[in-house]
Amino acid sequence: MFGVTDYGSFVIAIIVFLAIPGPGNLTLITSTGKGGIRAGMAAALGVILGDQVLMWLAVAGVAALLNTSPNAFFAVQWLGAAYLAWLGGKMLFAKPGAAPIINIQPHHYARQAMLITLLNPKAIVFYMAFFPLFVDPMQHRGLMTFGFMALTIATLTFVYCLIAVLLTHTLAERLRANPLISRGLEKLAGLFLIGFGIKLAVSR
Predict the structure, then answer these.
(1) Which of 6, 98, 124, 145 has the fewest CB atoms within 10 Å, counting from its CB?
(2) How far is residue 50 from each of residues 20, 47, 133, 150, measured CA to CA in Å?
(3) Residue of 71, 68, 63 whose CA lies nearest to 127
(4) How far is residue 75's CA from residue 66's CA, in Å, rounded to a whole number?
(5) pLDDT tens figures, 136-193
(6) Contact between 90 and 190 (Cβ < 8 Å)
């Protein structure tokens, strides 16, 4: 199909990768918890846009550049780690009753989610390694093939994010009745963000 081999396995692999806990999932949860469904879907849009940029950079061969220029790779990696740690620290040390960590305007949620996604250079290398597994060299159609794969990933990501946002919103409505639990979960989310930042910084 459009030069993609074993399309069913390709779809299953993407769904599995989407379900793996990471900064993107955490961003969806915290955005929805603070700003409701609109904020959650804005964050989802940010994740999708950031992911599409990384995919096309991978197609353009940026991974090769990063591999031949370790300093550039590590600079982006450390920038991403610092950004995640900064967000986590704000959530962890915010005082009870303080203003929300994330701005209430939807475009701020989208921008933050896109930045978190973009500041992970390893995603480019991942796509460079992942795409060839499902490209049929005999039926490959160039940009059409990669475009079809990118559209598939964007569609699956949107559906996954929609489900995650709706579930999170339902749970958040119940948790707002108990401020103690809500505050504890916010601190836990902050710890996870700091942890993701540290993992990104020390991984090689």
Answers:
(1) 98
(2) 17, 5, 22, 12
(3) 63
(4) 10
(5) 767 666 678 888 888 999 999 999 999 989 988 888 766 655 556 556 666 776 777 7
(6) yes
The tens digit of pLDDT for each residue in 52-107 reads 998 888 878 766 666 677 677 677 667 767 776 777 787 677 665 554 444 456 78
Query: How many residues in the chain?
Result: 204
Residues 161, 114, 184: CA angle, nearest 5 degrees: 65
Between CA 43 and CA 70 the distance in angstroms is 30
Q: How many helices, marked H, and strands, marked E, lie in the chain? A: 8, 0
186 vs 120: CA distance, rounded Å: 23
- Residue 116 φ/ψ region, left for φ over 0, alpha for ψ in the -120 to 50 degree band, beta for the rest: alpha
Residues 144, 2: contact at Cβ < 8 Å?
yes
Paired tokens of 77: 């990696």
- Amino acid sitting at position 26: L
